[in-house]
Amino acid sequence: MPELILRLALPSPLRRLFDYRAPPGLTRQDLQPGMRLKVPFGRREIVGVLIELRNHSEVPPEKLKAALQLLDPHTPLPAALLKLCLWAAQYYQHSLGDTFSWALPALLRQGEPAQLRQERYWKAVTGANPDDPRLQRAPRQREALATLAQHPHGVAQQLLSQLQLSRDSLELLQAKGLVELEVRSSTPQRHHGGWLAQAELPLNAEQSSACNAIHSGLDSFNAYLLAGITGSGKTEVYLQLIRQTLEAGKQALVLIPEINLGPQTLQRFTRRFNARIVLLHSAISDRERLDAWLAARDGEADIIIGTRSALFTPMKNPGLIIIDEEHDASYKQQEGLRYHARDLALVRAQQEDIPIILGSATPSLESLQNAYNGRYALLRLTRRAGGAQPPRLLRLDIKSRPLDAGISGPMQQAIEQTLQAGQQVLVFLNRRGFAPTLLCHDCGWISQCPHCDARMTLHQRSAELRCHHCGHSQKQPKACPDCSRVDLRPVGAGTERAEERLNTLFPQFPVLRVDRDSTSRKGAMDKLFQSIQRGKPCILVGTQMLAKGHHFPRVTLVAILDADGGLFSADFRGSEHTAQLILQVAGRAGRADEPGRVIIQSHLADHPLLVQLTEQGYFAFAEQALSERRSAGLPPFSHLALLRADSLKPAQAEEFLDAACALAEQLLGTLNCSGVELLGPVPAPMERRAGRYRAQLLLQASNRASLHRLLTPWIQQLEQLPGSRSVRWTLDIDPTDLF
Ligand code: ADP
Ligand code: ZN
Ligand code: ZN
């Protein structure tokens, strides 16, 4: 009888499969791709995923080990998910085993059974009435019962807080016999009247034409770019299309950038639908993640909402994928498997033959170009749905104007005016801390980080110098470490300094700072937002944390202190990101009766990009930026791959990249690949970081197929290079940052 050899993907960085003998007693019929097996690996036991079965192995028989145990009676990975992972590993030139490590819930990787567990559901008993006399003096319980009654098949324990249901109220209702708790593995088949727990809004003309266009393509793969300004009602369009998907008996997957910043969006989903919703984001436990994954796989969840990695959630009856804020940088993973969730979602939609909607007020240039060349249908929403006016954007030229903690005179006046009118101001500055540098006025010493080619930021509140790149911190020196004199001065301004100065300038108004430093304590963010929502005049100072998720209806002035750093940075994506950020921040402000304005301070107020953005809007800006990319041969008009390396000793990383470059040149010759250029190797823009020396080699190709034809054999050779062990290296396909 021929031997039965299992080829497994193991959690290892090596880009190959590993051969094992089948565990004793198992036959070919017992084994299917996707099943998990426990195997010996070195001195450990690990869990691998079966990819294929063979009759023989290249491994010498005496070295071939037997797998220890089959963990699954059926394959836990649906074929579609397996296919997606194989595609991702191939495209991103990543080890398949490690791809599974990023794509699958941790507990599955550790061998946990892949079956649904019991969940607790709260539901109103039949006939329970919020007008029950026993609830007359218990408004909270009455409200809780009313909410619960809208969800006839119950609300999962996990979702109580989303609906603002408190356990206490429910337990009191339970004691009165009005509410019951059910433990079951899933929601029973729907016998409910409809999917809506709340009426839909009547759509305006633009919304309906977008909705109709997508509705007509709901049965197969179609890609839509829903480009709607902030507040134009994109979410309402999503909700109505999801309802149609549910009515067709299918599931919807919604990706959002960062869950803790989108509680309002989330609540809209849970309030709208009488459906089983699961959430997948970084703050849930491993158990909750596995349960949600299993529920989606088995068709026990109707709507799956999650951040980046939720893309890998299997669905029994996939019907629709939505990527909200598709331009958001958090969709790109910057470690390990460096995938882009938006790009992979497109592949998935194609593989599963279902529609995908990319939504944004400020679409990425990649997606816009795909819309212009016809790969996506472009749907635009140009008006705010609630009737509010979009804010006006104004440039403020600060050439040769003195800045006071980064704030010019005219800006101070605009702030004053707004506060006096009883409104709120949002001051945006994308730099934390007090000042980005501390300088000795006597000898020129600057606060250089000992481990990086970067300066340490002064954090005056905590009297520290901190490096934002490696995390190193030290006490703020009282005297100059070099010359011992005491004339140390902060240079430039961060949010802490702007906050301090604004406090002095406007002592009668509260100044609230929102950045990673001020909101690190649990609940601090919520508290801040509560006081903002009360609507009294105040100043908000913050970083890009302010740009997402929340609405500040009483803010009528957005003051952008420094647009130049980003708009005109060396990174070719800098201007795109800054324009998106400006519009996202701007979109937080204003409502119908109080239109907002956005004032942008710039030293280059006449620059065409800034003029286009402020006078004609994001699309005009994007067209200008795209034409610049086209003439420079940059993405989306070319394809990039970046080989990064770093080492403890100087020059080692560059030597590795030199060897890599020589190999690539050879391969290009033998493969007859044209249109691939090798740029570098060069030291990284910040050469030393966290004590390591960094260098990079950029591959730029006019044709994606040629690039990938080169990459596959090249990376095999790189794994064999003598330097490949002493140097840390990674290959980034479609890099978003060139650092
Ligand atoms: P976006 O997702 O584009 O930022 P939203 O869907 O959040 O926009 O809509 C912005 C506001 O307008 C919300 O308060 C929403 O309830 C309201 N809205 C959306 N569509 C309509 C509509 N058709 N009629 C009235 N109000 C609407
Ligand atoms: Zn000095
Ligand atoms: Zn550092």
TrEMBL record:
It comes from the Bacteria. Keywords: ATP-binding, DNA replication, DNA-binding, Helicase, Hydrolase, Isomerase, Metal-binding, Nucleotide-binding, Primosome, Zinc. Zn(2+) 2 binds at residues 449, 452, 467, 470. Residues 475-632 form the Helicase C-terminal domain. It catalyses: Couples ATP hydrolysis with the unwinding of duplex DNA by translocating in the 3'-5' direction; ATP + H2O = ADP + phosphate + H(+). Gene3D superfamilies: P-loop containing nucleotide triphosphate hydrolases (3.40.50.300), PriA, 3(prime) DNA-binding domain (3.40.1440.60). GO terms for cellular component: primosome complex. GO terms for molecular function: 3'-5' DNA helicase activity; ATP binding; ATP hydrolysis activity; DNA binding; zinc ion binding. SUPFAM superfamilies: P-loop containing nucleoside triphosphate hydrolases (SSF52540). Its EC number is 5.6.2.4. Component of the replication restart primosome. Initiates the restart of stalled replication forks, which reloads the replicative helicase on sites other than the origin of replication. Recognizes and binds to abandoned replication forks and remodels them to uncover a helicase loading site. Promotes assembly of the primosome at these replication forks. Belongs to the helicase family. PriA subfamily. NCBIfam families: priA, PRK05580.1-1, PRK05580.1-4. This is Replication restart protein PriA. It comes from Pseudomonas pohangensis. The gene is priA.
